[in-house]
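Known limitations

Structure tokens in this collection are predictions and should be treated as such. Users comparing against experimental data should check residue numbering before alignment. To illustrate the layout, the record for Transglycosylase SLT domain-containing protein is reproduced below. The input appears on top and the generated tokens appear beneath it.
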Amino acid sequence: MKRTIAYTLVLFSGVGLLGFSLDTKASEKSVNMNSPAKADPAYRLTLENLQKTVPLTYNESVQKLIDSYASQKQRFSKMLGLSKYYFPIYERVFKEKGLPDELKYLSVVESALNPHATSWVGATGLWQFLEPVGRIYGLTINDTLDERKDPLLASSAAADYLLKSYAMYNDWLLAIASYNCGHNNIRWARENAGGGNLDYWTIRKHLPAETQSYVPAFIATVYIMNNHKRHGIYPADAGFNIFTNTMQVNRRVSLWNIAKATNTNIDVLTLLNPSYKNQILHGTPEKPKKLIIPEIKPYIYTALRAELLKSEPVQGELYLSYVTPESDAPSKPSKYVARDVSVSYRVQEGDTLSSIAEKFNGTEEEIKVINKLKHSVVKPGMVLRIIQG
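Generated tokens:
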């Protein structure tokens, strides 16, 4: 029975079965979509200036949601901060696949840029894929991995869905609507509206109630995210270092151990690597797993490499790739050569961490991280590992 229900959802729904963000749904409930809104020519002009490929229609429904979103300063401030990390990922994927850049804002509508978001029907991740639909679009979902939460892979799958929909309708607003309600609902709405290749606004009243608000929500989100200062909304700090490094790990390793080795908050590592269940990477030489860590100082990689070498021997090299949010495309991976030429030093009477660091042309922080010291006090007789620079 469960399997039958699951495939019924795939047949009749879009990616997330009307599963766009609970926060967005809540904000819509606070707006009476049938009450009149005061039209403002300035808003229409602003949307016209923002429009690139996807039509940004201005009407009363859009204005009501703009008014609602403009009052949600804290919520949009947070999403503006998070967008500095997620949007460059989407932009690179969409550019490669030939999608309009502005479709990245759908992820804001879907999940409020939360990789762990889950809807009432089980749609999951930044792009809110149902499990069966995610699998259709190439996302792995099993006991150890849920790639619906991976920003790169999920945005690629979302791009494929939207491209398929656009090929069917030659209309980006209908492609967006189908992402919410599915292709069958678009077909039925067109039939009920009289048949033919009708556009979104013509068939809108024949679509599910949530889809009637979905496209206006997208347009209002594009407006707010690009005109936030006008409404006193400013980006909050993302809460983590948005500059990251990526490496391929060919062994089973815990994010907790990586957090300890790199002195990184486990919550940050979990946010950057959201697809790994139980915070475990199950990498193998044949199928290495991607590990994303915040940008860290070079010497800390020695501690990380030591952590990764604790289990079975590495087969092949470790690679690191530095990617900045401003990049148009991921940087070419470059081999990381660890500074693992080290000596052992026995602490002498009168030594301090500062004097030892100076003696070996290093830093106190470097010595603390490599030797896993919780404080800066060293005692005579202690043996420290020192990396020679």
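For this record: The two ends are 64 Å apart (CA to CA). The chain has three domains: 2-231, 244-335, 342-387. Please report discrepancies through the issue tracker.
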